[in-house]
Amino acid sequence: MLWGIKISRRDFLVCLSSAVLLVLSFPKTNYFFLSFIGLIPLLYGLDQRSYSKAFQLSYLTGVMFFAGTLFWFVHVTSLGAVLLILYFSVYFGLFGLGVRYFSSLSSLKKMFVLPALWVVCEFLRAHLLSGFSWVSLGHSQYQNIFLIQIADITGVWGVSFLVVLFNVFIKEVIQSKTNQGLLFFVFILILGSVLAYGGFQINAFEKSQQELGQTSSLRIGIVQANIEQELKWFEPAWPDILDTYLALSKSILKENPDLIIWPETAFPGFLGESKETFERVRKYVIESKVPLLFGSVKKEGDKYFNAVVLLSGEGKIENEYDKIHLVPFGEYIPFRGRFPFLTDLIPIDDFSVGEKYTLFDLNLRTNNVLSKIATPICFEDTLGPLVRRFVNNGATLLVNVTNDGWFKDTKAPFLHLASSIFRAVENRRNLVRSANTGVSGFINPVGKVES
């Protein structure tokens, strides 16, 4: 039963089949090809259904899908995870309503209208009520390097469109008794154009790399200390945590880096309050003469910010960036003032919101080439418009500092990586990921993880 409406075993299996196929197309299983058929059971299940039934079946599919892809959010807040899953599933339901509404269209029109409808639903989910764009269907293709190159034109939405187009095409070809040749022609034309564009972009990038060589390469050292989340805010452990970061940083110096990066909230304590700890970090930087970019919780008066700080090789604070887009239920409680009981259910304090899209200036020590570094923190790199704002302001390098330790050994760090890959492709920028746990590495402008 769902909302008092009985669901038959057949309908339940239809919803389950689509949900399972779609979940398996994402990390960690990464069977990306399953997303091309994942919606077909649901699309068949929606044939000749009422509007209420179409919404019901699609919503149930959404609940199963989001439960299978976002279950890890319970490690932050169980109540928040349940609320998010129930809310996100509404967009699946809206898609089901649209499928029912457009059911009388020709097969050729459905091949364009239904993918567009899906993209509208994903776009709304990514922007309404703070926005959450994780596990868009396009993200399932993050390893399909030729297909995702169109993201520099369409964003992840264009790849989602293609995935849904594939599903609709297969269903309509099977069902349609006329115009099958036209459907094949249109589909192959679209897919061939996308793959040709992908090949062109990849080839152009490889040629530019050969011409550029190593003359302006930036040598970056990433420190991933794998500090357990339970220890990060256990004050007696702070000296040992700092010792770990300093020891790992010193081991990198033999590689002659231009910059060393620590992940989100790596600084043990509170910047602006833990003065002795900061002086130890500053002493290391002065001795190494290598700039350090690190994440920290920063205290200013009675406000706390999730921040990134750049220390110059002389130990001077060059600039700071305060996180602009906070995570609901993780960094603040939505509607806390209207629903005070949420404070008891989810006992966290609210961070303050940053206001400036700060860029960090860094000169290469070898040839004085200036890099302008943007540092989206944690989930901020999943937000295409926010990262684009940094690039439009002149960012030449993207650095995502994150702490995925919240989510234990789950698929969350790999889903996060998928979003990072799309930001690199969309903006044609190198992207560096510095994670406390999970996936650190270097992503080139065509979305290939180089290390």
If helices are DSSP runs of H or I spanning 4 or more residues, what is the number of helices?
Answer: 14
Report the span from N to C terminus: 48 Å
Q: Structural class, judged by helices and strands?
A: alpha/beta
CATH topology of the largest domain: Nitrilase/N-carbamoyl-D-aminoacid amidohydrolase
Number of domains: 2
How much helix is in the residues? 40-55%
Report the sheet-strand fraction. Answer: 5-15%
Identify the overall geometry.
Answer: globular
Determine and state the CATH class of the largest domain: Alpha Beta
Give the low-pLDDT segments: none
- Please tell me how large the radius of gyration is: 24 Å
Helix/strand order, N-terminal first:
HHHHHHHHEHHEEHEEEHEEHEHEE
What CATH architecture of the largest domain do you see? Answer: 4-Layer Sandwich
Tally the beta strands: 11
By CATH, the superfamily of the largest domain comes out as: Carbon-nitrogen hydrolase
Largest sheet: 6 strands, mixed
Mean pLDDT: 90
Domain CN hydrolase: 223-451
Subcellular location: Cell membrane
GO biological process, one term: lipoprotein biosynthetic process
Transmembrane segments: 7-25, 54-73, 79-99, 146-170, 182-200
Descriptive key words:
alpha/beta, 451 residues, 46% helix, 6-stranded mixed sheet, Nitrilase/N-carbamoyl-D-aminoacid amidohydrolase, Apolipo_AcylTrfase, Apolipoprotein N-acyltransferase / Copper homeostasis protein CutE, 5-stranded mixed sheet, 2 domains, 12% strand, globular, 11 strands
SSE topology:
Layout: H1 9-24, H2 40-45, H3 51-70, H4 78-101, H5 107-127, H6 151-154, H7 156-175, H8 180-212, E1 220-222, H9 229-232, H10 238-252, E2 259-261, E3 270-271, H11 275-288, E4 292-300, E5 303-311, E6 317-322, H12 341-345, E7 360-363, E8 370-374, H13 384-392, E9 397-402, H14 412-427, E10 430-435, E11 441-443
